[in-house]
Specification:
Helices cover 37% and strands 18% of the residues. The chain is of the alpha/beta class and 590 residues long. α6 (200-210) crosses α7 (225-238), α6 (200-210) crosses α11 and α8 runs parallel beside α9 (279-295).
Length: 590
C-alpha cells in the first residue's frame, strides 16, 4: 500500500460489538480496483479481514481511508451509517455526513516535514496513513515495522524514510484522536501459519513450468500479461542448462492470432506449449483454434477473463467468455475448459492442462479471471507434482516397426482419440499430412460426406471420453436441503460465505456443486436430480453456464435450473447471492 498513489484504502470487517472486531494474524483478502485509462485516475484498494477467514469481496465498507480528491465525496456518501473515515484534512470529507466517525489528518503537511522532495512526499503520505490507521486499529507497531523492512529489503534509505513516515502517522493519531470510539480492533490469531501469498497468474505460471512447458507465445493484454511475464522470470531462474543456455522459448508475437498459431505449431512438433490472453484475444484466435481442434494439435490456452464485449472494462472482472471458449471457432467445435477457483488450483490445473492437451490432442482452455489472476490470495503451499507427464498416444519407432503402419485419424481404441507421431520420428510409416481441410482416417484429403461425418462423430466421441478425465467437481450435500447452488471459479468464495449466511439467518440449508471443468461429468445430472431447484451462480449477464447446462442435461431436468447473475465488473459478494436467493425462493412460494 505504501507505493500506490493516489488511492483510497478501504478496510472492512463484518463482525462488530463492544469488544471490537477480531482479525487474523494476516489472513486478509486484498483487491486492487484500478482504471484502464493510463492518465493516472483514482485507484481503490480494498482489504478484507475477519476472524472467520472469509475472503470474497464484501461491498459494505466499514473503515475508509479517503485520499482521492476526485472521489472522496462519492466514497463517503456510499458508506452505511456509523462507519469510520480517515481522510486528508483538505478534502473536508466531514461536511458530507453527520452519521459517520471522521478522523482528519494533514497528510501533505506531515509529509512536508519529512522530506523537501515533492515526489517523495506523495509516496510518504501513504505510509503516514498506514501509521495513523495502525494506531486506530491497535495493530502491533513491531509487526508494521517488520512488514515495512521486508517490503524495502536491502534499501536502507527507503526503510528509514518510510519508518519515519509510519512513526509520524502513528504519533499524530495518538496525540489527536480518541481511538476508543473506533469499534474495530486487531487481535492476534495463529490462522496463517505456513501459508503463502501469491496471485493466480504467478501460480499458473509455476504450474506451467512444473508441467514441462518449453514454448510460450503470447501478446500482451490485460489481465493476462503477468502470467507469461511471471513464467519468463521463473524459467530464467530454473530452466537454464549447465552451459548457461535457455531450455525454453518465450516469444512475444505480433498479435494473438500469431501467438496461438505458434503455440499450436510447437505442440504439433512435440513441445509442451501454451499462450495466455483475455476475451478479445480469444476472439482473434478462433481460426487457429479451429485448426487445432480439427487437425488435432495440442496446446494450452489461458483466458484470464475481463469484462466485455469489445474493449469493455479491461481492468474489471467477469466470467463471460464461457461460450466463446467451449465453442471457439466456426463450425461444430467443442473444447475442454478447466476452471480453477484458487491460486492452488491455478497451479494444479495448469499442470493438468498439459497432460490433457496431449492425451486428447487438442487445445485445452483454462478459464481464470482478473480477480483470481491479478490479486494476491492466501494459500497452503503448493504440492510438488510427483506423477509422470502423460504424453498421450504417441507412437515410437519400435511401435511403428511392430505395426507397420497407422491411421492418423482412426479410432483404434473406441475412445475417439487417434494415435500420432512426432516430426522427426525415423520410420517411413511415421509421416502423415496434418490437415485442416476434409480428411479421412489415413489423413488423406477427402470431400466424401461419409468421411467427414465419421471424423466429426469421432471428434465428438473424444469429447465424451473427456468427461471421465477432466477434474471432478467438489460436491457438498447439506442435510435437509431442497435446493442447491452450482458455481465455478472465484464465485466459490462468495458461495461458501452465502451458504453460511443462509443457514444462520434463514435456517435454510443449501447444497453446493463446484464445477471445475467442461465437459460436465456424470455427477452433474446426479446432483440436479436430488434437488427441487439448482441455482447456477455466475458472473455474466446472460447466464452462460446455466444455458450450457440446460443443453447438456435431460429435458425433464431443465426446469430445475435457475440463474443468479452478477455482472457489474466488481467481484461477486456473498450478500448479493443471499439476497437474490431469498427473493427467488419467495417468488417460488408465491
Amino acid at each position: 500500500m505504501s507505493y500506490k498513489s493516489p488511492q483510497t484504502l478501504v478496510v472492512e470487517e463484518e463482525q462488530r460489538g463492544s469488544g471490537g472486531a477480531v482479525i487474523n494474524d494476516f489472513p486478509v483478502s486484498g483487491k486492487n480496483l484500478f482504471p484502464s485509462n493510463i492518465a493516472g485516475l483514482p485507484t481503490w484498494f480494498t482489504i478484507r479481514a475477519n476472524k472467520d477467514g472469509w475472503i470474497a469481496r464484501r461491498k459494505e465498507i466499514d473503515f475508509l481511508v479517503a485520499m482521492n480528491p476526485e472521489t472522496a465525496r462519492e466514497d463517503v456518501m456510499g458508506l452505511d451509517p456509523n462507519r469510520v473515515v480517515v481522510y486528508e484534512e483538505t478534502l473536508k470529507a466531514n461536511q458530507y455526513r453527520r452519521d459517520l466517525t471522521f478522523f482528519p489528518v494533514p497528510f501533505t503537511k506531515l509529509a512536508s516535514g519529512i522530506t523537501p522532495d515533492s515526489r517523495l512526499r506523495k509516496l510518504l503520505a501513504n505510509m503516514i496513513y498506514v501509521g495513523a490507521v495502525g494506531h486506530l486499529l491497535e495493530i502491533d507497531p513491531a509487526e508494521m515495522e517488520f512488514a515495512l523492512t521486508k517490503q524495502f529489503k536491502g534499501k536502507a534509505k527507503a526503510v528509514t524514510l518510510n519508518k519515519t513516515a509510519l512513526d509520524t502517522g502513528r504519533k499524530f493519531a495518538a496525540e489527536n484522536f480518541d481511538k476508543s470510539i473506533v469499534p474495530y480492533r486487531c487481535q492476534r490469531m495463529n490462522a496463517t501459519k505456513g501459508k503463502i501469498i501469491i496471485d493466480g497468474n504467478s501460480a499458473a505460471a509455476l504450474g506451467c513450468m512444473f508441467a514441462g512447458v518449453t514454448v510460450a507465445t503470447w501478446y500482451p493484454i490485460t489481465p493476462s500479461s503477468s502470467l507469461c511475464e511471471a513464467l519468463t522470470e521463473y524459467m530464467k531462474e530454473y530452466r537454464i542448462d549447465q552451459d548457461g543456455k535457455a531450455t525454453f522459448a518465450v516469444v512475444q508475437a505480433e498479435d494473438e492470432l500469431a501467438a496461438v498459431g505458434m503455440a499450436l505449431g510447437a505442440g504439433w512438433a512435440g513441445a509442451r506449449s501454451m499462450t495466455s490472453t483475455a476475451g478479445p484475444g480469444i476472439s482473434l484466435m478462433q481460426e487457429f483454434v479451429g485448426l487445432g481442434y480439427y487437425a488435432e494439435m495440442p496446446t494450452v490456452i489461458f483466458d484470464i477473463t475481463r469484462v466485455g464485449p469489445s474493449t469493455g472494462l479491461p481492468t474489471r472482472t467477469q466470467q463471460s467468455d464461457i461460450l466463446s471458449m467451449v465453442y471457439c471457432s466456426h463450425g461444430d467445435t467443442k473444447h475442454i475448459v478447466l476452471i480453477p477457483a484458487s491460486v492452488e488450483e491455478c497451479f494444479e490445473i495448469a499442470y493438468a492442462a498439459f497432460d490433457l492437451a496431449e492425451r486428447f490432442q487438442t487445445p485445452i482452455f483454462v478459464l481464470s479471471d482478473l480477480d483470481l489472476g491479478m490479486n494476491n490470495w492466501m494459500s497452503d503451499p503448493f504440492k510438488y507434482p510427483v506423477k509422470k507427464f502423460d504424453r498421450g498416444k504417441v507412437l515410437s519407432v519400435e511401435e511403428l516397426k511392430r505395426l507397420g503402419s497407422f491411421q492418423r485419424y482412426g479410432d483404434v481404441d473406441g475412445d475417439g482419440i487417434p494415435y500420432r507421431t512426432l516430426p522427426g520420428t525415423k520410420h517411413p510409416a511415421a509421416a502423415y499430412f496434418t490437415r485442416g481441410s476434409g480428411h479421412n482416417e489415413n489423413a488423406a484429403y477427402s470431400e466424401r460426406p461419409d468421411d467427414y461425418q465419421r471424423n466429426m462423430d469421432r471428434l465428438n466421441k473424444k469429447y465424451e471420453t473427456a468427461r471421465q478425465h477432466v477434474p471432478k467437481p467438489e460436491i457438498a450435500h447439506a442435510e435437509g436441503a431442497k435446493i442447491g447452488f452450482l458455481a465455478f471459479g472465484t464465485t466459490h468464495w462468495a458461495i461458501i460465505e452465502s451458504r453460511d449466511q443462509l443457514a444462520r439467518e434463514y435456517n435454510l440449508p443449501i447444497s453446493y456443486y463446484r464445477l471445475r471443468a467442461v465437459p460436465f461429468t456424470k455427477d452433474l445430472v446426479e446432483f440436479i436430480e436430488k434437488y427441487d431447484r439448482v441455482y447456477v451462480v455466475e458472473q455474466n449477464r446472460d447466464g452462460q453456464m446455466a444455458g450450457l447446462i440446460k443443453l447438456d442435461i435431460p429435458a425433464h431436468l431443465v426446469g430445475r435450473i435457475r440463474s443468479i447473475r452478477h455482472y457489474n465488473g466488481l467481484p461477486i459478494d456473498a450478500r448479493f447471492i443471499t439476497d437474490e436467493l431469498v427473493a427467488a425462493e419467495k417468488g417460488e412460494e408465491n
